[in-house]
Amino acid sequence: MPKAARTAMLPYDPDKRLKLLGTGFHALGLAITLVLAGLGYALAIHPVWEDVRLKRDRAADLQSLLENAAQMRAQHAAMQSTLAAIERESEQLRQRIPPEPAEAEFLSQLSRAAAVAGLVIRDYRPGVVRQATDHWRLEVQLACTGSYQALCAFLDRVASLPRLARISHLEIGGARQPAGYPITLSMTVFFKLEPKGPQAKPGASPPPPTEPGGSAPRRSAAAGHRFGIFAAWDHKPPMKAACRHDVRQRA
After folding, report:
1. DSSP conformation letters of 143-164
2. Using an 8 Å Cβ cutoff, are 145 and 180 in contact?
3. What Cα–Cα distance (Å) separates residue 31 from each residue in 22, 25, 38, 39, 142?
4. Which pLDDT score, from 0 to 100, does residue 249 have?
5. What is the C-alpha separation between 194 and 136, in angstroms, rounded?
6. 30, 117, 191, 233: least buried by Cβ within 10 Å?
7. Residue range 106-112: mean pLDDT, rounded
């Protein structure tokens, strides 16, 4: 029987079925390839790209830090310079605070400053000695006579003395005398710096310049050479002119 007749007698076409099977196998192979490619990307390629992205971001951050490094170094140098200046100023202030009152020496310096400025110190009255956190302080009142210009020059010289001093109160009388205006002046002075922390000795007592009964002796500037004026520990630069002090003009 001829082949064409046999093929016509079969219920299906074998060649067509083979073609369909081949197409199906090709599609299955393509699907498997795509699945394997997706798995490979997810398991191998994607982590690599993610790592590359993270490293690029890190590199960008480092580059930004490098670009700002010069500014950061300049700021650090400026801060170091400021700290060094503060430490020097603090040490200079400490050098101006003696361990003992040294009243005679300070009175001599103060008298020279008043003489050069043209101010007359007529009287003084030391107050009560008080203990602060790390030093001792004393309030002193002065009675002076002189012109406003002499007072300005005197205050400027006091600020430049080896002993640090701060004016806590200053009052100028309204009635001018032949020698000048009556001036009442208060100074806060201190001495005997004490260490902070475990080395501190809170029980220490200074030599207060008081008489029996607790009252402060009243002395004349021309009669004696003990004058308790010390600096006020305040971490502020001394005032250089009378206009920066608390001056009140009486009516």
Report:
1. EEEE-HHHHHHHHHHHHTSSS-
2. yes
3. 14, 10, 10, 12, 106
4. 41
5. 9
6. 30
7. 81
Buried b (16+ CB within 10 A) or exposed e, 123-140: bbbbbebeeeeebbbbbb
Burial class (CB in 10 A: 0-12, 13-18, 19+), 34: exposed
Mind listing the pLDDT tens digit for each residue in 36-54? Answer: 777 666 666 767 777 888 8
Task: Give me the DSSP letters along 82-112.
Answer: HHHHHHHHHHHHHHTS-SS--HHHHHHHHHH
Structure tokens at 76: 């650090």
Residues 6+ apart with CB under 8 A from 248: 170, 171, 172
Residue with tokens 């050098």: 95
CB 217 within 8 Å of CB 103: no
What is the token pair recorded at 228? 């308790």
Q: Is the pLDDT of residue 111 over 60?
A: yes
The beta strands (E) that lie in the chain are given as: 120-131, 136-146, 166-172, 181-191, 219-220, 247-249
pTM of the model: 0.52
pLDDT for position 154: 93
For residue 226, count CB atoms less than 10 angstroms from its CB and return exposed for 0-12, middle for 13-18, buried for 19 or more: middle
Structure tokens, 163: 């002993």
DSSP state of 40: H
Compute CA distances 218 → 91, 109, 117, 221, 243, whole Å: 35, 20, 24, 10, 29
Beta 181-191 vs 136-146: how paired, if at all?
antiparallel
The two structure tokens encoding residue 55? 């490293």
- Residue 108 to residue 221: CA distance in whole angstroms: 11
Q: Do the beta carbons of residue 111 and residue 144 sit within 8 Å?
A: no
